[in-house]
């Protein structure tokens, strides 16, 4: 059982959107994930249900048939007020390598200038914090990572680029993220992650889940190139540990 006020509304014929208070808080995200785990393991078992948690919501999707909203809303309200007794899904801490060389950190000098700190301090701050994955969008595998230190908060670029290369690590507002593929984008690019964040050929195309933690560490260009080769031949080993053990 939790104490947050929630709203429940239809989201098309096959989906329902449950919303929490519109604040970016880890306690709210934890409540969302715990309730999602409860629904998956107790109330809505089966492959025909898909659940998509994010910053302040979880979307429930029935793949096979439309949902009777009025009756289902009552059930959801009751389930949310139940005493939850379910083993929580493990959350992981992922350590991801980033090369901040000038070849990749194309906005790093301007970011440092606008924030009135050195480029080295930008890198130090970016790698000294642990981030929480609050949501995945606007591209498959694009991670919205919250927990950026206040000293690195910077607005999106006023003029987006037509092409941001895959792996680019950017800053925007209170968030940092990694572009999973080449795409247009308006985030301030400070480096490039050598790990492929989204691979549709794999059973789990995006290996990091909402609620997981991410920490970046700096690497040189030679190590970046090595990681790319290891990734292509399938021998790169991801660095992860259980966060909520």
UniProtKB/TrEMBL annotation:
<dbReference type="InterPro" id="IPR010016">
    <property type="entry name" value="PxpB"/>
</dbReference>
<dbReference type="InterPro" id="IPR029000">
    <property type="entry name" value="Cyclophilin-like_dom_sf"/>
</dbReference>
<dbReference type="GO" id="GO:0005524">
    <property type="term" value="F:ATP binding"/>
</dbReference>
<keyword id="KW-0067">ATP-binding</keyword>
<keyword id="KW-0378">Hydrolase</keyword>
<keyword id="KW-0547">Nucleotide-binding</keyword>
<dbReference type="InterPro" id="IPR003833">
    <property type="entry name" value="CT_C_D"/>
</dbReference>
<dbReference type="Pfam" id="PF02682">
    <property type="entry name" value="CT_C_D"/>
</dbReference>
<protein>
    <submittedName>
        <fullName>5-oxoprolinase subunit PxpB</fullName>
        <ecNumber>3.5.2.9</ecNumber>
    </submittedName>
</protein>
<feature type="domain" description="Carboxyltransferase">
    <location>
        <begin position="6"/>
        <end position="208"/>
    </location>
</feature>
<dbReference type="GO" id="GO:0017168">
    <property type="term" value="F:5-oxoprolinase (ATP-hydrolyzing) activity"/>
</dbReference>
């Amino acid at each position: 059982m939790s104490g947050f006020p929630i709203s429940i509304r239809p989201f098309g014929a096959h989906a329902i959107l449950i919303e929490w208070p519109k604040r970016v808080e880890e306690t709210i995200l934890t409540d969302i994930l715990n309730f999602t785990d409860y629904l998956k393991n107790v109330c809505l078992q089966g492959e025909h249900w898909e659940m998509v948690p994010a910053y302040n919501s979880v979307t429930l999707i029935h793949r096979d048939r439309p949902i009777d909203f009025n009756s289902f809303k009552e059930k959801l309200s009751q389930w949310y007020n139940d005493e939850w007794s379910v083993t929580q899904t493990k959350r992981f801490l992922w350590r991801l390598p980033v090369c901040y060389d000038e070849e990749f950190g194309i906005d790093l000098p301007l970011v440092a200038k606008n924030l009135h700190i050195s480029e080295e301090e930008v890198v130090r701050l970016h790698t000294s914090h642990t981030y929480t994955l609050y949501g995945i969008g606007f591209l498959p595998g694009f991670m919205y990572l919250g927990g950026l230190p206040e000293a690195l908060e910077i607005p999106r670029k006023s003029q987006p680029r037509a092409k941001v290369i895959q792996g680019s690590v950017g800053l925007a507002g209170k968030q940092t993220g990694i572009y999973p593929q080449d795409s247009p984008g308006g985030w301030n690019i400070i480096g490039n992650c050598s790990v492929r964040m989204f691979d549709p050929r794999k059973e789990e195309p995006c290996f990091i889940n909402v609620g997981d933690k991410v920490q970046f560490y700096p690497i040189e260009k030679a190590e970046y190139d090595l990681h790319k080769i290891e990734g292509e031949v399938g021998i790169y080993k991801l660095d992860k540990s259980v966060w909520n053990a």
